[in-house]
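User: Mind token order:
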Amino acid sequence: MIIFQNVSKLYKNNSHEIAALEDVSFTINPKEFISLVGRSGAGKSTIVKMLIGEEKPTKGRVIFASYDINKLKHKELPHLRRKIGVIFQDFRLLPNKTAYENVAFALEAAGRLQSDIEEFVPQALEMVGLKEKMFNFPKELSGGEKQRVAIARAMINHPDAIIADEPTGNLDPINTWEIIKLLLKINELGTTIILATHNKDIVNYLDRRVISLENGKIIRDEEKGKYILV
């Protein structure tokens, strides 16, 4: 489903070039659950940005399903992004919209019918355990509840993959594990999950594939990996 082929990303810093990624290659199959680990600045966020077309590689190719992301025009990016749900550490909910409206907004942007929105939004919020709070605004929700709204929004278009970029970074341990259980449930239903995280306990608990990054390079790619940074 996802191919990174000899990908390098260079950023200019005054007269110097800094390599955010250096000759990175890996593939991700449908329905996999992958953890991307590495210290801050290791290249995790650059990989995430490339997958959703926010950044393009300096060298190499990034392919998602039938999309050669390097070659996509700006107007084609929304089509790609409907295939990839993204969950962020800071939730990125619209503060003046209810939980229902935040999730519905993703369907409205995709041009879905009002009848679809009325059917699918309550289903998505029920799946994440928030049907009773669908008309609450973000300020009336806890951090864990906000992240569950964000998960409902990410999965509402039935994407092929969900990228979770440090989704538990702002949460307490109880809510952290609730979010991880939700991601596992979504994965069991057939969605590929790419989890970028600093949380060693989560990675070791999952016992799934782990891609470890350091200074923009893959230093480890293990099928049943652990969080190991030397």
